[in-house]
Design goal:
Elements lengths: L22 H33 L6 H13 L2 H7 L5 H10 L7 H14 L6 H15 L3 H7 L1 H22 L4 H27 L11 H13 L3 H8 L5 H10 L7 H16 L9 H15 L2 H7 L1 H24 L2 H18 L22 H4 L4
Length: 385
């Protein structure tokens, strides 16, 4: 009689997904993605603003009424006022592009993105690393004077192309693993935040007179807002006719097909957040998942009339606050574990001791950032959202 067939053993249950990846690796992938997206959005905003001014050189007060709102919407007006007297094309470009004292400047973002990528060099593809490194080397050789002499539009275009290349290479070369989820979550969270700020720029613009509302200047300003989000062509395909304020705002907030609209970005944020936190049930367990679900429900049920009645600025501020709270909880839950934080502090202390000549130990725990053993400095990973 033949022996009975063996019953296949049940495979062991996998650990919850949020605990599979080292939190410091997730931390670096998340902020690498956010910083690249942030640099691109700042570059596009500056580029569109310069082009807008070149179209309205003869309109009085346009210069000061255009550059000031960029600083206000960035949330860095106090820091700007500390180092510069008044917002104009040169000072705002210097502050938002090259000033390392501004943690949201293009230069600071690219430096931080490269540092985070270096920390997880073995986790990303060679092509991804080369793209970030080449952008870093390009910026190291630039300054405000050189950029203005050569033409700022070409400089900003290079940053945008590098960001698009990096995101395309990421989509083509990175495995669809938990690391991918942190990269995409960071990208769409940053993109949603920047879309609110692009819309808020228009709120802060003070028109020379009430007669300009609906006029050529007002239309040009809304066209600039759409171009700042790379949405002008998509808007024209959707609405075909003239650019109207409420239609432009509606498109950037509620479109479910344009990849930079608030609705589209929050939908992606909610999806990747549920994967990261293991939220498989219909009722969210974590505060971040509940906040994300409420925000998505609002964007799926509200109309542009509801938003304008509430106040566009107030609506956008509420969304920024919600996105910030989601980011904070995910960082606290998945990116810093107490045991790893203690080890990280020990590593930093040993590194500082070696640099000052006070210690020569190379024992275990020093970690190698080339193999994912290190973690990005917290100053590089926790800037204001």
């Amino acid at each position: 009689m033949p022996p009975a067939a063996k019953t296949p053993s049940t495979p062991p249950l996998l650990r919850p997904q949020a605990t599979i990846m080292l939190s410091r690796v997730a931390h670096s992938l998340y902020w690498m993605s956010r910083y690249i997206e942030r640099a691109e959005n700042v570059a596009r905003l500056l580029d569109v603003n310069l082009q807008f001014l070149s179209d309205f050189q003869d309109v009085s007060s346009v210069e000061q009424n255009t550059w000031g709102p960029l600083i206000l919407s960035s949330g860095q007006e106090e820091l700007f006022g500390k180092y510069y007297e008044a917002p104009d094309s040169r000072t705002v470009t210097e502050f938002l592009a090259f000033d390392l004292r501004n943690p949201d400047s293009i230069l600071a973002c690219v430096y931080a993105a490269r540092e985070n990528a270096r920390m997880v060099r073995d986790q990303i593809s060679l092509e991804m690393w080369e793209t970030i490194n080449e952008l870093y080397l390009l910026l190291k050789e630039q300054n405000t004077t050189a950029v203005w002499e050569a033409g700022p539009q070409e400089f900003f275009a290079k940053i945008n192309r590098a960001s698009h290349l990096f995101q395309g290479l990421t989509a083509s070369t990175y495995s669809r693993s938990e690391g991918w989820e942190f990269i995409e979550f960071g990208k769409y969270l940053e993109r949603a935040d920047k879309t609110t700020r692009i819309l808020d720029v228009k709120y802060h613009i003070l028109l020379p007179s009430a007669t300009d509302v609906g006029g050529a200047l007002d239309t040009a300003q809304w066209q600039a807002v759409l171009r700042s989000a790379s949405a002008l062509e998509a808007y024209r395909r959707y609405y075909v006719r003239e650019i109207l304020a409420w239609k432009a705002a509606e498109f950037l907030i509620f479109s479910d097909s344009f990849p930079r609209s608030l609705h589209f970005c929050v939908l992606q944020v909610d999806d990747f957040l549920r994967r990261i936190l293991g939220e498989s049930g219909t009722r969210p367990r974590s505060a971040a998942a509940r906040a994300s679900r409420r925000l998505l429900a609002d964007l799926q049920s509200l109309t542009i009339t509801d938003v304008l009645n509430q106040g566009l600025h107030e609506f956008l501020m509420d969304i920024q606050s919600t996105l910030a709270s989601i980011s904070d909880e995910v960082a606290a839950t998945t990116m810093f574990y107490p045991a790893e934080s203690v080890l990280e502090d020990q590593q930093q202390q040993q590194q500082q001791a070696r640099e000052t000549g006070g210690a020569g130990s190379t024992g275990p725990g020093t970690g190698s950032s080339e193999h994912g053993g290190g973690t990005a400095p917290r100053a590089n990973g926790t800037p204001p959202v």
